[in-house]
Amino acid sequence: MSLSGKNIRINGERLWDSLMDMAEIGPGVAGGNNRQTLTDDDAKGRELFQKWCVSAGCSMGVDSMGNMFATRPGADPEALPVYVGSHLDTQPTGGKYDGVLGVLGGLELIRTLNDLNIKTKHPIVVTNWSNEEGTRFAPAMLSSGVFAGVHSEDWAKSRVDANGKSFGDELERIGWVGDEIVGSRQMHAMFELHIEQGPILEAEKVDIGVVTHGQGLSWTQVTIVGKDAHTGSTPMHMRKNAGLGMAKILALVDAIALDNGPHAVGAAGHIDVYPNSRNVIPGKVVFTVDFRSPDLSVIQNMENRLKTEGQSVADSLGLEIEFDKVGGFDPVTFDDHCVGAVRSAAEKLGYSHMDIISGAGHDACWINRVAPTAMIMCPCVDGLSHNEAEEITKDWATAGADVLLHAVLETAVVVS
Ligand code: HGY
Ligand code: MN
Ligand code: MN
């Protein structure tokens, strides 16, 4: 069948309806989602996704990290599959589209091929990667990292949440430990559709981001120990105020990122203060510094400055300080051929497009280590994400899924 290409599009209404149906599961408090990994809501989202995939004629596979794989058979069962997908887990105050667009955009691709009775040589597999966010169990992209051989399965399953529950126990509890060996699957290629989570595409009035690279990430957990004491009766010169040490170091993190601008960024999103009582000087604080840059040497320099200058801050205040690397990955260069398939799909479909570096981390960043990989991005309103007000337009979602469809058709080879 000669695919003219231009007239084959996904069903944007159906995709949007599926996004809205999934958003009903694990609602937030302000219109977004709180469907954190391995919670009962995550399990419900998995069940709904599986139900949809089975109705679309896919066979389901699940590996021992709970990664889900829905396979649409190809004409050549020996041909390695083309994978698409992303993640269904969300931040505690997450949006409806981060990750979910990539999973349901992949499902919509399958539904469209079924509607048009299109057969591809390579099978196509839609994936839901467990615990992309890393908010409940650090680090982010945990299960795609195990799949890519970056983390051992035992280490990953030993990661604990704020209540001391382990990934392995929680995956068992929700009943999503699969029988496949994680990482045993071979891929012909992988494409991940994702919202940009930044302001560039919207500001440039461009529909499609052709993601050539992903910036690197570093998570350093900082523990500062001082001494709990009375906030009223303890003279200032006698205090060992861990909170003050943290405040100075958070200002240092901002300065380090700005000194490495314009592409470096830095902040701390996770902060625990102990005992966190209004009239007790904090005796201990634990926080995670998130540094990112497209340049690995810049990330390393930022980490080194944090340690040396953070240590001086602690020494000056009589505090103990510890730095633990709890997550990170090097900057990523995606596969030229797959990136080319994304770019030519956007061109063929007449969508405006531009090359872009991903500011956020994604499962594709790890899968790029084991298979030719590329990403497609669509804009998001005000560049906002990891916020319940995250928003995209139906047109943006449709354009992204259309480009995903055609990039996959080019790679999976249409036979009829
Ligand atoms: O942290 C990230 O960049 C991703 O959203 N997990
Ligand atoms: Mn994401
Ligand atoms: Mn996210």
Biggest sheet features:
9 strands, mixed
Radius of gyration: 22 Å
- The secondary-structure element order is HHEEEHEHHHEHEEEHEEEHEEHEHEH
Distance between the termini: 5 Å
Uncertain segments? none
List all distinct small molecules, including ions and cofactors, that are bound in this structure: (2S)-amino(hydroxy)ethanoic acid, manganese (II) ion
- Indicate the percent of residues in helices: 25-40%
Number of strands: 15
* Chain-averaged pLDDT: 97
Number of helices: 12
General shape: elongated
Structural class: alpha/beta
Report the sheet-strand fraction: 15-25%
Structure, explained:
The protein is of the alpha/beta class and 416 residues long. 35% of the residues lie in helices and 22% in strands. The chain has 12 helices and 15 strands. It has helices at residues 12-23, 40-55, 100-115, 142-147, 153-158, 167-173, 200-203, 242-259, 296-316, 336-349, 363-367, 394-412; strands spanning 59-62, 68-72, 82-86, 124-128, 189-195, 208-214, 216-225, 229-230, 265-274, 280-281, 284-293, 320-329, 332-333, 353-358, 373-378. The strands form 3 sheets. Strands 1, 2, 3, 4, 5, 6, 13, 14 and 15 form a 9-stranded mixed β-sheet that branches. Strands 9-11-7-12 form a 4-stranded antiparallel β-sheet, with helices on one face. Strand 1 and strand 2 form a beta hairpin. The relative contact order is 0.19. The model has no long low-confidence stretch (mean pLDDT 97). It binds (2S)-amino(hydroxy)ethanoic acid (HGY) and manganese (II) ion (2 copies).
